[in-house]
Amino acid sequence: MPPQLNSEREFISRERIDEPRAAHWRAKADVADFKSVYAEAGITTPTHGYGVDKVAEMLANPRLGSRARDVRATAALAALEAAQVALRDVIDDAVLRHKALAAFEAAKAFELQALKTRSRARVDALQEQVRVFLAARNGEIDSLNRAVQAARQQLAQLQARKQREEDRLLRVVTHFVEPRPVPAPPSRGAIVSPLLPADPALKPAPPGPPEAPKPVAAVSAPAAAPPGPPGPPKPGSV
Question: Half-sphere exposure of 85 toward its Cβ, with a 13 Å CA cutoff?
Answer without folding.
Answer: 23
